[in-house]
Design brief:
Radius of gyration: 23 Å
Largest sheet: none
CATH superfamily: MetI-like
Helix content: over 70%
Oligomer: single chain
Number of helices: 12
CATH topology: MetI-like fold
CATH class: Mainly Alpha
Length: about 270
């Protein structure tokens, strides 16, 4: 067994320290928000002077938090429709790109992924100007359209990884046996890429639910979205219900992440 030298120990300690620092930076703020959501204070303070469930009770109160509930329902509706639209677009694009090595396919894939590198504020402003040019008033439909453009690249990564592993011989065998392209997709292709499709839908849903730039430009008083509502509450008053809502979102995202990782190996597909 190789014995570690002094320099090896120093490198190992540095790597361990960087890993611990990274974990603290990523997880620390989340833990602070969750702990603060149980504070007995009437303003956001850390550390909390005491612990209580009061703010969660007020958050779920249908009268006191009616506006938050409406915004949350709008966000969930838009996120669900965005996940469906983005996954459908990404699945079609992934299957088209995976079957060819032509230069146009690489260009199309790069264009499809471009929203990932564009500044969110710039993309939100561009969406507002584009839909204003089309004379479309703010609506949930416009929010779904804007969120889909942002969420589709996330779905493309996971669906594309599954589509790249398809065996062309299976498609050829299905065609030889007389199956139509639609039947081949339903009976052969879709079952094989379904884990990637499910992972893409989940990532699209989460990215839409958390989207601020597009929601900021395309939402209105009638289409209030949860992130914008919480941001407004932070600006006008340090309402502790914001921390409680964040705690609910963190818990829901964590549970869904565990379920998706168990069902389709989400973390493996994201890293791949």
């Amino acid at each position: 067994m190789h014995k570690l030298t002094g320099s090896d120990r120093i490198v190992a300690l540095v790597i361990l320290a960087l890993a611990a620092l990274g974990f603290l930076i990523l997880v620390g703020p989340v833990l602070i928000v969750v702990i603060t959501s149980f504070t007995s204070s009437r303003a956001l303070r850390f550390p909390p002077p005491g612990l209580t469930l009061q703010w969660y009770q007020e958050l779920f109160d249908p009268v006191r938090s009616a506006q938050i509930h409406v915004a949350a329902l709008n966000s969930l509706t838009v996120a669900a429709l965005t996940a469906l639209a983005a996954t459908a677009l990404a699945t079609g694009a992934a299957l088209a790109v995976a079957r060819t090595r032509a230069a146009w396919a690489r260009f199309a894939e790069g264009a499809f992924l471009s929203p990932l590198v564009l500044p969110g504020i710039a993309f939100g402003l561009a969406s507002l100007m584009f839909f204003s040019w089309l004379r479309q008033p703010p609506s949930l439909f416009l929010l779904v359209a804007g969120h889909t453009m942002i969420a589709a690249p996330f779905a493309l990564r996971t669906v594309g990884a599954s589509a790249a592993g398809l065996n062309p011989a299976l498609l050829e065998s299905s065609a030889v046996l007389g199956a139509s392209p639609w039947r081949t997709f339903r009976k052969v292709v879709l079952p094989l890429i379904l884990p990637g499709v499910a992972a893409g839908a989940f990532l699209s849903f989460v990215s839409s639910l958390d989207n601020v730039p597009v929601s900021l430009f395309l939402s209105s008083a009638q289409t209030d979205m949860l992130p914008i509502r919480l941001w407004g509450m932070m600006e006008t008053a340090l309402d502790v219900r914001v921390a409680a809502a964040s705690g609910v979102l963190v818990a829901a995202a964590f549970v869904l992440l565990l379920v998706m990782d168990r069902a389709v190996g989400l973390t493996r597909r994201m890293s791949g």
